[in-house]
Write a structure and sequence with these properties.
It comes from Ureibacillus aquaedulcis. This protein has about 280 residues and is of the alpha/beta class. It folds into two domains: about 160 residues, Rossmann fold (3-Layer(aba) Sandwich), CATH 3.40.50; about 70 residues, no CATH class. Helix content is about 35%, strand content about 25%. The protein is built from eight helices and ten strands. β1 and β2 form a beta hairpin. The protein is globular and about 65 Å long. The protein binds adenosine-5'-triphosphate. The site of adenosine-5'-triphosphate has 13 residues, from β2 and α1. Adenosine-5'-triphosphate (ATP) binds next to β2 and α1.
Length: about 280
């Protein structure tokens, strides 16, 4: 059996609002992720997906509970965990190559070697020809490819992705799904991927963690047993999308009932959304 890589035990996270009342972003979250696993965190807005990702990244500290990576407690950010965000976060004044090399130079890798490794990664994400371009000369999809190359060039064990493709058009997103799937299979990285998009989650993941709101936490976990590389028209994936959608509808209905109280008059069908579309942010 594969090795345990990330262990979350009864993780609880509270934030203080400006009026000093607490928001429970995560309540009693327990999850074990194996080395090399691709896990998606899926759920409506505010269910704590980014908070959970940030805790694993070491950017946020859990209020209580335990987080272990390779059996060691996490005290802050580390080279073993790199985050890719929705915005590429590239330095606009540096060339694509310099952006990808940057993390290596910080780690004192000699310039020639850093350049070689960065160029290798740019080839892998099909941007070898754009090494000397500036970020503003690239499309959104190309920028995200650079962000992925910049993350993987430092060879982290864990890649944390917070809605990395959310701002891209559907075609570009599908191409990047195929590329990320290939890179993940080639490198064996452990990936945690935050998304609102059910189709994206089923196409990419080994397991999908469906999250709930108020308080944020885990509602259900769905293993995805379709062969890779995947095709979103695979009947296994379509069936799974529908199961997830049904649970999400229940969750969204619960939130609406709480929010609207006696004004609640929503029919379940009004909530039915196309799984290829983003969901959850308008509840
Ligand atoms: N720094 C913060 N201070 C106060 N409250 C916060 C902070 N960060 C998150 N929260 C609250 O914690 C809850 C979970 O937020 P989080 O951003 O993790 O959700 P999410 O599922 O990633 O949402 P979205 O899909 O909209 O990005 C929300 O109620 C949010 O308002």
């Amino acid at each position: 059996m594969a090795e345990e890589h990330i262990i979350l035990q009864n993780v609880h996270k509270e934030f203080q609002r400006k009026d000093h009342t607490p928001t429970i972003a995560l309540d009693d979250v327990s999850l074990t992720i194996k080395k090399g696993e691709f896990i998606s965190l899926l759920g409506p807005s505010g269910c704590g997906k980014s908070t959970l990702l940030n805790i694993v990244a070491g950017l946020e500290k859990e209020t209580s509970g335990k987080l272990l990576v390779n059996d060691k407690p996490i005290k802050g950010p580390g080279n073993d965990r790199i985050v890719v965000f929705q915005e590429s976060g590239l330095f606009p004044w540096l060339s694509v190559l310099d952006n990808v090399m940057y993390g290596l130079l910080i780690k004192k890798v000699p310039k020639q070697e850093a350049q070689k490794r960065a160029l290798d990664w740019l080839q892998k994400v099909h941007l070898g020809k754009f090494a000397h371009a500036l970020p503003h000369e690239l499309s959104g999809g190309m920028k995200q490819r650079v962000a992925i190359a910049r993350a993987l060039v430092t060879d982290p064990e864990i890649l944390l992705m917070d809605e990395p493709f959310a701002a891209l058009d559907e075609q570009t997103r599908m191409v990047l799904h195929m590329e990320l799937d290939k890179l993940w299979r080639e490198t064996g990285k452990t990936i945690i991927f935050v998304t609102h998009n059910i189709r994206e989650a089923v196409v990419l993941s080994d397991r999908i963690v469906l999250m709930k709101t108020r308080p944020g936490g885990i509602k259900s976990i769905f293993p995805v047993q379709a062969a890779r590389p995947r095709n979103s028209s695979d009947s296994i994936l379509i069936h799974l999308e529908n199961r997830i959608l049904t649970e999400l509808e229940q969750e969204m209905e619960k939130v609406l009932k709480e929010e609207l109280g006696s004004d609640y008059a929503l029919k379940t069908n009004d909530l039915r959304v196309d799984p290829s579309n983003n969901m959850g942010s308008d509840i």
